[in-house]
């Protein structure tokens, strides 16, 4: 069987076991590909993290635009290797599907973007505007030295991005049925409630923090965290992720403390301060002695639908004969950093049914379709039409 350039590139990337924080040769493969297309390429390294910033074409006039493709080469751990039908970094093509960790999130989409750009540049060498890539190797990890650092550098240089396509796997049942223009933020909390330790046979001489926390817990679960209905976002939610005491000795001790770990996913209408105030009010109402540590892990973002959204919707309609749903669901994405630069952002990628799971794969037909849709988006944005 003869494999296409697209399949071979996706396969080559999957064969790199670039589980965060490793990147293996992913950046070399991508740089090599972009070099052949005459991109201006900059490898931006922050500590051990490799990021690629590259652009092609130029922007001579105000009405010419920069379209950025945003992606990442790092993948999550494959987990139990015995559970995989094919080794996760073999990039095996079987039954018209490409198998391996990262096939969907998001080496398949990366290959689709690169090949779409390649086809576009070769077909329309005199297009107007700029085609750019920002590819990090720290999206699945801490994100400290990834897209955020590159955006800081680009902002200092007054780089302007008009439109950004993020290759995160947005699709559900068919390519393009769901696209995203925002994500909720993530706020982490660690709450410790203090009681007083004692013998279980003499509860009158101690204060059991487990008993104290129960009514508070049910109040947390019954609280509505949003003040107003938000038509663009799912509601702000709280999930308790862990509860533990300092008692790991035996069962005749009333513990001194109980700790709760929790995570808020909050939309753009919820303020962090309001969430914190609300938690404080509940704790004070129950007269608890407590300590709470907060950590903001991501701000929410929302990108107002404009020209890019229209172009993406039309490209999907052209190939798929369906109207995509515009959503803001799912975890956080690096799209938030590009939205901060003032760009219109749309996330469009592979079907997400196998992301971060064992036996991740992408159908070859999906891979090809994604690349065709990306190419049409580039054409519709960067070809000057009379
Ligand atoms: Zn991803």
From TrEMBL:
Keywords: Amino-acid biosynthesis, Cobalt, Diaminopimelate biosynthesis, Hydrolase, Lysine biosynthesis, Metal-binding, Zinc
Cofactor section: Zn(2+); Co(2+)
Entry's EC annotation: 3.5.1.18
Catalytic activity: N-succinyl-(2S,6S)-2,6-diaminopimelate + H2O = (2S,6S)-2,6-diaminopimelate + succinate
Residues reported to bind Zn(2+) 1: 72, 105, 168
GO molecular function, one term: succinyl-diaminopimelate desuccinylase activity
InterPro entries hit by this protein: ArgE/DapE_CS, Bact_exopeptidase_dim_dom, DapE_proteobac, Peptidase_M20, Peptidase_M20_dimer, Peptidase_M20A
Pathways per UniProt: Amino-acid biosynthesis; L-lysine biosynthesis via DAP pathway; LL-2,6-diaminopimelate from (S)-tetrahydrodipicolinate (succinylase route): step 3/3
Pfam family, one: M20_dimer
Cofactor note: Binds 2 Zn(2+) or Co(2+) ions per subunit.
Domain of life: Bacteria
Signal peptide: none
Binding locations of Zn(2+) 2: 105, 140, 356
Domain called Peptidase M20 dimerisation: residue spans: 181-288
Active site: 74, 139 (proton acceptor)
Leading EC class: hydrolase
Subunit structure: Homodimer.
HAMAP family recorded: DapE (MF_01690)
Record family assignment: Belongs to the peptidase M20A family. DapE subfamily.
Function summary: Catalyzes the hydrolysis of N-succinyl-L,L-diaminopimelic acid (SDAP), forming succinate and LL-2,6-diaminopimelate (DAP), an intermediate involved in the bacterial biosynthesis of lysine and meso-diaminopimelic acid, an essential component of bacterial cell walls.
Protein name: Succinyl-diaminopimelate desuccinylase
